[in-house]
Amino acid sequence: MVNRKELNPDASPQAALGARLRREREQRGWTQREFGAEMQYSPTQVSHVETGLKIATLPFCRRADVVLGLAGTEESFEREWLGMKYGALLEGFSGFIGYEGRAVEIRLYEVGVIPGLLQTPEYAVVLANAYVERGAITNDQARERTELIAERQAKLVRTPAPLIFVVLDEGCIRRSVGGSAVMGAQYDRLLEFAEEPNASLQIAPFAMGERRPFNLPITVLTLADRSLVYYAESAARGHLERDGPSVVPTLTAYHQLQKHALPQTESVAMIQQLRKGTP
């Protein structure tokens, strides 16, 4: 192979992805032309990604996963692409958001702050800036976080829309973030969400006490094939599991959480009462 370019996977994350793409292709005995035909991309595009001349796009990576039989696995190119783009985020989260964007049902529980899917831009910026002030992340990483929240929210606006079940610990709505103006707009966003036909919003009151089954934020996703994805997050890391032994028990615990949380009418009334105290 006279024109074969030697690759340096250590040069950059993109170079590592390209080198692995070439390795996966060659293990199957395909030329770039044959692989490109399966991918529905030109051999030139395949070559440019493999050699790092062009950055792989998310659609390219997803198509490669289908052709190579890696879709939905820990070794998928989609997962690697998300890891490159959102590398400053917690371990496990980059893989999770790929599933979240395709889920038909989303069940989430949050402790302490409004979850990203329901945050206003102003609320998200205040939280990100607080991390910068503490020295936990850089300004660029803060911008990346707020951009990611907007991207995640945009993916929910699709047809058919996913069913979204949200249970917020009472502390989420009582903790002031960014002052009264920011919180006023955030309360409005929650009330708007509760009116959406595909949405359910409940508050888990402090009075639940020991009946509250979760102490950390969790999300359970149902995918189009009815398989389940479970994601839990601590301060240090995220944990992602698909159809594992802990997924069904977590879903059962979530249903118990909904059973003991306030009904949506009472939850909305609590938010409205708090809204009256903001401009």
State the main characteristics.
2 domains; Endonuclease, Chain A; 434 Repressor (Amino-terminal Domain); six-stranded mixed sheet; elongated; 279 residues; 6 strands; alpha/beta
Report on the architecture of this protein.
With 279 residues, the protein is of the alpha/beta class. The protein folds into two domains: 73 residues, lambda repressor-like DNA-binding domains (434 Repressor (Amino-terminal Domain)); 145 residues, Endonuclease, Chain A (2-Layer Sandwich). The chain is 49% helix and 13% strand. It contains twelve helices and six strands. Strands 3-2-1-4-5-6 form a six-stranded mixed beta sheet, with helices on both faces. A hairpin with a 4-residue loop joins strand 5 and strand 6. The longest helix is centred in the middle third of the chain and has 17 residues. The relative contact order is 0.11. The model has no long low-confidence stretch (mean pLDDT 88).
- Strand content range: 5-15%
| Spans where pLDDT lies below 50 across 5 or more residues | none
Terminal CA distance reads 70 Å
| Strand elements, count | 6
Shape descriptor: elongated
**Major β-sheet profile:** 6 strands, mixed
Mean pLDDT: 88
Helicity level: 40-55%
CATH topology label of the largest domain: Endonuclease, Chain A
Structural class: alpha/beta
Please name the fourth-level CATH homologous superfamily of the largest domain: Endonuclease Chain A
Helix count equals 12
Could you give the order of strands across the largest sheet? 3-2-1-4-5-6
CA-atom Rg in angstroms: 22 Å
In short:
The chain is an alpha/beta fold. It has 12 helices and 6 strands. The longest helix has 17 residues, at 139-155.
